Amino acid sequence: MILGFTLLQFYRKPIFAHKKELKVTQILDQLNEEQRSAVKATEGPVMVVAGAGSGKTRVLTYRIAYLLENGVDPFNILALTFTNKAAREMKERVARLVGPEARNVWMGTFHSVFARILRSDGHLLGYPSNFTIYDTDDSKSLIRTIVKELQLDKKVYTANTVLGRISSSKNNLINAQGYNNDDEITTADKAAGRPFTGKIYALYEKRLFQYKAMDFDDLLFKTNILLRDFPEILHKYQHKFHYILVDEYQDTNYSQYLIVKKLAANNENICVVGDDAQSIYAFRGANIANILNFKHDYPEVKLFKLEQNYRSTQNIVNAANGIIANNKEQIQKVVWTENSTGHKIPVIRTSTDSEEGRMIAGDIFETRMNEHCANKDFAILYRTNAQSRALEEALRKQNIPYRIYGGLSFYQRKEIKDLLAYFRLIINHNDEEALFRIINFPARGIGKTSQQKISIKAQEHDVTAWEVINHPHQYGLELGASVATRLHQFKTMIAGFASQLHKKNAYDLAKHIAATTGMIRTLNEDKTPEGISRFENLEELLNAINEFTNKAAAEGEEDKPRSLDIFMQDVALLTDQDNEDKNDTDKVSLMTVHAAKGLEFPFVYIVGLEENLFPSMQSLNTRADLEEERRLFYVALTRAEKKATLSYAETRYKWGNLIMSEGSRFLEEINEEYIDSNRMYNTSASAKNTPRHQGDRRGDTSSYKKIGGGTPDSSKFKKASALKKDTASYPDISADDIRPGVLVSHQRFGSGKVLHIEGEGPNKKATIFFKDAGEKNLLLKFARLKIIK
DNA sequence: GGACGTTCTGTTTTT
DNA sequence: CAGAACGTCC
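ok -> structure tokens follow
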């Protein structure tokens, strides 16, 4: 289980074990003049505008090292990043420069640092230190519950939309009351046909507080409230953090911006580093204006521009600059490089997504041979996580080891969330999402109806469900005798676990819980491949907890408590599995472009450059979104050191449907001179025969057509007996030929559709006729296969 | 009341 | 495709 390892490594790696390598005075010599000036300007506000590959992280880490070397107490430094990965890398690099004292610098993501502050001072806002952090799934689930309770139409009030509204409000420091009092907002909601969004927000806010839970946005929002309403706390942290550094400043939202501003207000020793051209998180509230307006906030600011790129070849830098030049909003700067011209950018055009995978796997194989490089020198970047499937398949076939970053996080898996829900409930009895998640899992005879009764009583008396379960009579909970007994047993079990929380270490307690609740048994009974994998995941989690428990000895932190609640604090924000151990892995990296920010690879493939995929369908609606999409492409390109390769597929399976598409506009926005004129085309007959769509497709979203079809995955095929029979009589063609097959044409046929699909081998041309032509659910079980050639 | 099977729906990026 | 919702049966 790939995802599991990463979790393990996080706890295994003794990151502060490094010995100091160099004196800071020595390392300063390694910097260019601008970088060195940025490092040395320790006092007062500083902004570093750092182009891609210009040594931004270097400046940040050296700056911290420089501060420490000049006698600044590590406890007085705060360094904020966006991802765990970035924080980790910075920690490692600083530790390498200055040795173990680096551990005392507060370095972490905005969310983790503020969570830490809230755990220590959140009691002033009425939160216990063991409050639960709700991830997006928890939040959505709570919203769905509320929508149901309010008897609203869940199709109108989808969890995504509602959470999006709430989230952006929180990021602009608007609470539910403010939301409902704001005419502009409520009018907009009414206009959108969702007049009750504010009501949902109010209930959502109330419930979270009742559950003693915070969602991701709350970690920022509540920190703001804390610093606003409790001056003594503000002073405490202002006094503590003499020096503040912020990475990726262009991605801060208003909420983050304000916290940083407040913390820095005392002595203004604030250094922000960023690149407006790499702002790719506007969708979650990032405000590019924060970096554009930094000068207004701090008129005394010293500005440094790092414009020399040390990473990429001239071709890549120039191509990337050309893309971004299409944008209107940007800080003027010229990113340049002294590196060699390098390869021109090849564009691979394929007919299907699986062929795209094959071509890239083949190219990796070849390049690895020719250039004598390792797997880890390659990265494949895509716009959406779903695109990884076809690539994985191709890499597996070529025996190229790979690692996927992101996607469905280990912690989002059902079996993991289930076990974690037990932990959550034990630590925080108010956590109702957790409670109802596991009250009847594994099944113990407390069904939906009983759960609803509990829920209703809790609301009637404005207490938590746990309170009702503890005193059923007091709240008039009426259940059948047997259900009442089972509920009592459940309560006793949870309470029993809770009493062990600080008696047993995390591993022993976790193991005890997994066994006692029947989770282990239930999962072990399922012998399907998925079931086995679920069981393994559970084991993986337990292993990770074991590592966590044993870590004390390894890192000389014997005094640190190793109880389950401490583990859960760490885990809550570890939502991306970014804990690559570079030393023992040699794998090709697969990830989204977003996840690739801050990384670099000698060889980078950017795949799925299709109109409506990259740039994404929704980004085509507004100029701002399209500009962000361009910046995203800019980020992707500039990850490459030696060579960037682009690719797109003309047809692709998406949500079980075959999708037709054309090359992305970005392919045409790159200046011809940087593109490899020997564009690599696939060699299949169809690609040669199919004329390239040359029409003006700017803004033409209709080119992205769903033409029906079904993914012939194994489970569907078992049911598709009709198809099997048909194919069985044609030894020349197998059902498997359909998927890698090339779409030749499609046409209406009565109420159905006919797809002409060409198989891979010689004489493998087939027609699939769909009997059922409903727009959706075109499953192969309704299909019949005919050899037409 | 609860287990189990079928149908429907939403589909970007992340802390 | 996966998860939720709905329907059916014991």
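Chain A has a mean pLDDT of 79.
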